[in-house]
Here is the input.
Amino acid sequence: MHKLWEIFEENVDPLTKIVHVPTLRPAVQKALVDTSTIPRSFEALLFAIYGAAIMSLKDAECQRRFSAPRRSLLSRYTSATGKALSRAKFMETTSLVVLQALVLHLLSVRDVYAPRAVWSLTGVAVRIAQTMGLERDGTFLGLSPFETELRRRIWWQLKLHDFRTAELCGLAKFRDLDMGVESPRWPTNLDDDQLHPGMTSLVDESDKVTDILFVAFRCEMTNFAASRVAEFRKQGKDPSMWALHTQDQSAKARAFIELQDTLETKYLRYCDPSRPLHLLTMLVGRYGMNVVKFLTNHPRKWISLDQTPPEERKLVWDVSIKLLEQHDMVQSTPMLQPFAWHATYFQQWHAFIHVLDILRADPLNSDAAKAWKLVGNTYENTPAMILDMKKPLHIAVAKLCLKAYGAREVAMQTATLNPGPTPAFIIRLRQRWETIKAKQRAQNAKSFDVVHSSQSQGTVLDESNSVFIAITSRNAPTVNVPDRGIAPQMENLGPSVSHMQNNPFDFFTGLNDPQYGAGDTGFEFPSTEDSNVDGFDMTTVDWEQWDAWLADSNVMRPYPA
Here is the structure.
């Protein structure tokens, strides 16, 4: 318990600030001495802290410190958190402590459950927060300065999590960011020791770096995005398509300079790169500004690479390379390892796809060696991109990657250049690809036998079998069935309603079932009618198709294993 608390303090709290550590620490120390007197609300918070601590570690560190694999430890503590939240009756709670536990729990499971499941659970947390009045600033509710500030931190951490999870589900990221007069203000830039329960007023906000640096910085980025989204809405435009709405180059430049000046003036110029949290903020700051630059110059607005102005093509290529570099630095820099857990959830897939597309189209690009090194590092930092081929996005990226590397090999041989040894990640991808193709051939043969047998016997296949065959068969015809979402399998999605009333958290703990918690469907092909792995056409990038693959990789499947 003591080790887990220390890990939470070091790895998780600086990036979340969901709890106020100076106030919480004495209660934790008391709990470590005597666990028999812990209130149920505080028990839930403790287990959530333990789960978040394990979530922030890599497997090797879990083995070294706790002699157990990360997966089993995380499962143990998140399951315990679920039970503790259920005992605390979280669904009807008015306790800020229970809400803190729930928000920490969401962070712990966000890389375990499918994003659609996490987004749904986040919606529950948002509703609970709303019933507790967190969507209004505490100054309008007559609350103390300390509680007002704590509620601001919890609310915005929850909303930032909600925005990103929605984005991973294929939805507009800031679609419900409406800042009214009474909406919670952004967290105040103060050190933790400047806050205490008995204070009668907040001290003046600091203009220097404080303990809440990273959270304040993220909120500043969100504030910028909110103003852009509001502007697009006034113009009747889709806020998710930044590149299509910002054709005016001078407007692009003004918006970017405005963001850059704000971040530099308020935060980055005070950061000391020798301190891990400061270095992380500097990297995330550069990363965030490059994300904005990429979004406002997104290649989706291009008809084709050949018709793209050279200067614009170079701009987006340079920005994409920087995004890969900065993402790799956060994950691989030794002094940032306590915070590396935060990076995977914010990977910019479109920049990665664009780099691979350029490498495919221009295999002898002057920066090709550097780009392939970054691509390899991305695969090394994210093993699931090779190990988890149940996600359409992973399959599509793998196909594009192999196509690009094949083009590189051919181009270098043609130019009588030595391509050097094949990278390990390419070898693994090729082996994985052959395995997938073999499985698909076997599945196609099986599906053909089922169809042939059914036709010869006059049997009519039901809708779900027809859809399954359409997904997995080579050259399968389009099968039109009603769009029923996950309705066909609702009876299999967990405990009965009557049981849920007795134990409402079964809805959460039941998500440990891989049937719908991890998107495991028993087949490794995208659920699209052109899902045949040999049918992926990577000659040009269809961004709408890539968006569909990204969304489809994150939704819960309607078909059981």
